Known about the structure:
The protein contains 15 helices and no strands. With about 300 residues, the protein is an all-alpha fold. It has a single domain, classed as ADP-ribosylation/Crystallin J1 (ADP-ribosylglycohydrolase fold). The longest helix is centred in the middle third of the chain and has 18 residues. The termini are far apart.
Amino acid sequence: MDVQRWYPTGIAGFHGRPGDVIPRYAGKRYEWRIGETTDDTEQTIAVARAILGERPVSHVAIGRELLRCRKSAHPGVSLWSFLQIGDPARMASDGDGCGAAMRAAPVGVFYPSSRLDDLVRGAYESAIPTHGGQLAVCAAAAVAGAVAAALEGRSGAEVLTVALSAAQKAETLRPSEKAPAIAHSIEQIYSDLANRKQLVADEVAGQYFPNKPQHIVPLAISLALITQSAEVTALLAANIGGDSDSVASIGGAIAGALRPDTVNEQWFEVVSAINQDGLLDVAASLAAITSTSGRAIGPLRAGRPGSG
């Protein structure tokens, strides 16, 4: 496995106190800190801010917010190309990475699953500044649909159904001859993992290592629905490896919406203290406007959204 190749003598270089530069990143282009959020959170907040500023969901408004993002912006990633062009109205013609899906949760907070057409369109608008491929757009729709259904207190099976419906509906927005579609991957991976007696990180990594879009989003959704725990989903993602922050971010959002009590409060407090990115204010504001979209969100408790 890649972990054994990268760390033959054991995983090291990540120790320290919250807020300290992670040892293995000291002196690098970007010095990541212990407890610091990644581009997944930065771009998720960007989408939420865009929705707060302009409704219905608009790719131009989202583009303006994405132009302020800097984490993990380097040659070879979709955000880098977007930042170099510098046009908030830009609509990507391709791009099938998971960058669109990782930031789609706010769309699912704003639109209820009963407005699936609007939700899918919102997911498309949030994706298109950087990702124009069918896989990316449909994956974003699936995540938004899953979050919406989870917030409504639906069962795991119902959340899966809404996610699949959203992904399939989004296929018409970006027709493609490529196969299989992301909905097929979600259904297949979920079906396999849900029938296992237990989820073992090494076994999951051996079959569905999250280093490509066809695995990342389906795995995140599957872990969230099977464990129904934001904490367990994050731990599994970290131990599976690959694009672990995206799996944890996407899966954690869905599991946290489904079961707010499974969010690790100590982790939450550390992350909030280190990042000071206004996440709580944004979340509270987004929850406050959801009534205009036909959705009611539970009250805030202990500083955490949706845990009432």
